[in-house]
């Protein structure tokens, strides 16, 4: 194993150890806020059953452990969380961990696709805008990015459904796969890809707008630094300077912001998955909130916190690989 790989391994190990108290702190805050909110699973089940007698309510709360003091419930929750036992979902009648794992990969597929789209389009459009600063391509791209940044996610999703599904009929409006089709292999992958197009575009649009403006500003800033002036004095052409020297340094802020935007994208996925009926964590969170499924909601918050921490570690490693001046130590 190379020394560089060992340094990366030690760096990741240190960050994972540092993440443990952060996760515990997040778990405390999540547990307190969720359990201090009015209503619980017993209220929902009693309302559905049409039987809210004191005996029935007491039986429900005892069955789901809601009759215990809050500190007892927290200690039980914390102990189980350390072994990734996140409890039982009363709404789905399944273990929370099993539910989260079943809905995790659709959300990861959606987010990774949206991030790749935003990253590639942000670089391409940002470079075009920066190389044509104060000319019509710059004005067109900057105006389009501003409009995309200000457009509500749910409105954009509904308009895309109306245009591409209802009027044109070229893309499916909801779900992740065609129900009852029974596709396998590449045909199934193509079907999932077709369902993925609109949700990924909607989720990635906001991030794309942000990345375009950031890339443009970063290209212009790096282009004024001394090493660029030195490259010009050596006779290098503008294309060579832009793509060989400026671009790599200008990408550093984009890598940083991608890590910081993961939390916002998880929040946006709730709206996107609800609009497009995408079977991911966002839609599961919507159900957990409105059904007062506390165990499921706490599990979702824990999973999202874990995803943000892991993404930040990956971002730090990528940043250090792109810029060798930053040490892994």
How do the strands line up in the largest sheet? Answer: 1-2
Strand content: under 5%
Return the CATH topology of the domain at 110-292. MetI-like fold
Give the helix proportion (percent range): over 70%
CATH class of the domain at 110-292: Mainly Alpha
Average pLDDT score? 82
- Sequence stretches where pLDDT stays below 50 over 5 or more residues: none
User: How would you spell out the order of helices and strands?
Assistant: HHHHEEHHHHHHHHHH
What would your notes on this structure say?
- There is one protein chain.
- By secondary structure, this protein is mostly helical.
- Helix content is 77%, strand content 1%.
- It is built from 14 helices and two strands.
- A two-stranded antiparallel ribbon has the order 1-2.
- α5 packs across α8.
- The two termini are 17 Å apart.
């Amino acid at each position: 194993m190379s020394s560089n790989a060992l340094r990366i391994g030690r760096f990741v190990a240190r960050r994972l150890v540092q993440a443990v108290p952060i996760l515990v702190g997040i778990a405390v805050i999540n547990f307190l806020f969720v359990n201090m909110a009015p209503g619980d699973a017993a209220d929902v089940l009693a309302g559905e059953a049409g039987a809210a007698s004191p005996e029935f309510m007491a039986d429900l709360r005892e069955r789901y452990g809601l009759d215990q003091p809050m500190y007892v419930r927290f200690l039980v929750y914390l102990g189980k969380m350390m072994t990734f036992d996140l409890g039982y979902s009363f709404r789905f009648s399944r273990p929370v961990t099993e539910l989260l794992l079943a809905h995790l990969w659709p959300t990861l597929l959606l987010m990774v696709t949206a991030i790749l789209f935003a990253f590639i389009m942000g670089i391409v459009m940002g470079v075009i805008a920066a190389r044509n600063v104060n000319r019509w391509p710059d004005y067109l791209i900057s105006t389009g990015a501003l409009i995309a940044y200000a457009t509500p996610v749910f409105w954009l999703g509904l308009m895309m459904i109306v245009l591409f599904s209802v009027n044109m009929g070229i893309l499916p409006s909801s779900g992740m796969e065609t129900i009852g089709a029974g596709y396998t292999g590449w045909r199934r992958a193509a079907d999932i890809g077709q369902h993925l197009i609109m949700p990924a575009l909607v989720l990635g649009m906001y991030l794309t707008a942000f990345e375009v403006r950031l890339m443009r500003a970063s290209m212009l800033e790096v282009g004024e630094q001394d090493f660029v002036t030195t490259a010009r004095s050596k006779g290098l052409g503008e294309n060579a300077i832009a793509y060989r020297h400026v671009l790599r340094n200008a990408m550093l802020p984009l890598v940083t912001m991608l890590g910081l935007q993961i939390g916002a994208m998880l929040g946006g996925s709730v709206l996107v998955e609800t609009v497009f009926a995408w079977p991911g964590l966002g839609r599961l969170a919507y159900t957990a909130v409105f059904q007062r499924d506390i165990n499921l909601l706490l599990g979702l918050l824990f999973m999202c916190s874990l995803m943000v921490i892991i993404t930040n570690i990956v971002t730090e490693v990528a940043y250090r690989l792109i810029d060798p001046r930053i040490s892994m130590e």
